[in-house]
Amino acid sequence: MAKLPVVSIDGKPVRDLELPDEIFATALNSHLIQEAVVAYQAAGRAGTHATKNRSDVRGGGKKPWKQKKTGRSRHGSIRSPLWRGGGTVFGPKPHEYGYAFPRRKRQGALRAALSEKIREGRLLVVDALTLPQPKTRDLTRALEGLGIKGSALLVDEPVERNVELSSRNLPKVKATLASALNIVDLLAHETIVLTAKAAGRVAEVLAS
Q: Class for domain 2-46+98-207, per CATH?
C-alpha cells in the first residue's frame, strides 16, 4: 500500500493515509497517457466549421447563356465552383471529432499520471479543503501555506462552495470533483491537491 502524509490546510501533519498500489504506484506509460489526451481533446472539439457548396451559395438559378453557338464554354450556373463566388468543392462540414476510447485505457492513463505526480512529489493530501468565506485572498494564503507556488488542481468530493468560488479568480487554480478528474487537468497543473475523502473516491473509481 502506498502511504502518503495527510496535512491540514495550514500545512501541519495530521496522519498517514494508505492508498492502493495498483492505483497510486503504477509504472509510467507515456504512450497511454498521450492516447488519452488526444481522445479527450478530440471529444472537446466543436466541429462547427462549414463551407458552402454550389447548392448553398445564393443565386445561380439561371443558366448564364445558352448551351450552343456562343463561342464560349458551356455553363449551367454562375455558382459553379469554377466561377469566382461559386461554391466550394469538398469543403469541411460540421461533424464530430470524438471517438470511442476504452474506459480501461482512460483509467490506466489516470493511474499512471497520478503515480508519476506522487513520485515527483507534486501530489498533496489534505485533511479537508474548506474556507470560512469565499475570498480569493484566503485561498491564496492557504495554497502558500501548503508550499504551492505554481498551478494547482484542487480535488474534493464534493467541492466546498467557498473553495469553488474563491478559485475562479485564480487563472492557475481549478477546483474539480474527484469523480470528474480527467487526464488533461492532471497534466496541465503542477500540483494536485486531494482531500482524504477525494483520494478514497479516486481509488474507488479507478479500481472499477
A: alpha beta
